[in-house]
Amino acid sequence: MAKEPVRVLVTGAADFNGVVESGSGEARRSGQIGYALVPMIARGVMLGPDQPVILHMLDIPPAAEALNGVKMELVDAAFPLLKGVVATTDVVEACTGVGVAVMVGGFPRKEGMERKDVMSKNVSIYKAQASALEKHAAANCKVLVVANPANTNALILKEFAPSIPEKNVTCLTRLDHNRALGQISERLNVQVSDVKNVIIWGNHSSTQYPDVNHATVKTSSGEKPVRELVADDAWLNGEFITTVQQRGAAIIKARKLSSALSAASSACDHIRDWVLGTPVGTWVSMGVYSDGSYGVPAGLIYSFPVTCKNGEWTIVQGNGLGIDEFSRKKLDSTAEELSEEKALAYSCLT
Ligand SMILES: NC(=O)C1=CN([C@@H]2O[C@H](COP(=O)(O)OP(=O)(O)OC[C@H]3O[C@@H](n4cnc5c(N)ncnc54)[C@H](O)[C@@H]3O)[C@@H](O)[C@H]2O)C=CC1
Ligand SMILES: O=C([O-])CC(=O)C(=O)O
């Protein structure tokens, strides 16, 4: 029997010109990730090839016409799994009945704005959208926050939607995880699908810690540690880490736009693994509510290695994941940055 459609919300989904300003003050195209993401969802990349979906797209009123244009394109693409499209600037209509919410919409930093100004704008957006999700989304709705500052936006959303279980609110660090897999595969000239179990710890920012201490590569003679195969600790502890940390900025510099394709694809990976499960023996990185594991302060949304089964994530525990002194410092410094962001976000609420 055919499955019932799942309603999937994507905020910031309009593809339109000239309203958002880039850091340089020039007008630029916005809705980049959303526009890349909606066809992937409609094709079954996020929830599987047998799961019908109804797409809900939300954007701000100046983007209404462009949002309707995206709806027209989705209809024209005749995706077999797509059972309906809601394109709206009304947050209640957008959130009603959704089982998955991908929060891409947010306020970008503009020239001359202080960090606190950007945080303040996003805190009010995420506070309002949290209330709408709490009241109108389906029970057990799974939330993925993509918009920056992703961890802290997710934390605000969690705080203002207290009836949504804290395990249901996450943020995207899978793009960083995939970037780390990509760097290792390029360096070793192996298939990216043969590399696994890197870890992104902490914030989706330049303080994140991409950790390869437990990562392996499938070879003809079994799984081998990445460290042994790379055999260059200076590169792994230096250039590799900074490349992954700075990759978003490098893409923006090259494209003059954010990493839309890879962010959209990674958002699909995040939700697909969360809903359908991670392969046996493989973990992925997700920004989740810290329970104090690995000495990370509880009450932050922090990226950990997780496995997923039956629609639930679990932080990878156990003796296998020893944290050496180098890693400890990096785990702590990204946690410190998140604590500061949390304090800043709370100061914007008062
Ligand atoms: N976590 C991650 O791995 C990554 C996060 N990002 C972040 O994702 C976000 C989206 O990136 P882009 O698509 O390039 O940005 P963008 O600026 O092109 O698009 C943002 C969209 O959000 C909309 N928006 C603004 N306020 C809204 C509101 N209150 N409700 C609904 N929609 C609203 C805008 O109108 C626009 O369509 C940014 O915050 C970016 O920094 C980008 C890449 C990776
Ligand atoms: O700062 C941005 O918008 C880009 C970003 O997060 C990334 O590509 O990782």
From TrEMBL:
Q: Which GO terms describe its molecular function?
A: L-malate dehydrogenase (NAD+) activity
Any idea which positions bind substrate?
R109, R115, N148, R179
Q: Which GO terms describe its biological process?
A: malate metabolic process; tricarboxylic acid cycle
Enzyme Commission number(s): 1.1.1.37
For the Lactate/malate dehydrogenase N-terminal domain, which residue ranges apply? 30-169
Fetch the Pfam families from UniProt.
Ldh_1_C (PF02866), Ldh_1_N (PF00056)
Q: In this entry, which stretches build a coiled coil?
A: none
| Recorded catalytic activity of this chain's protein | (S)-malate + NAD(+) = oxaloacetate + NADH + H(+)
PANTHER family listed in its UniProt record: MALATE DEHYDROGENASE (PTHR23382)
Q: What is this protein called?
A: Malate dehydrogenase
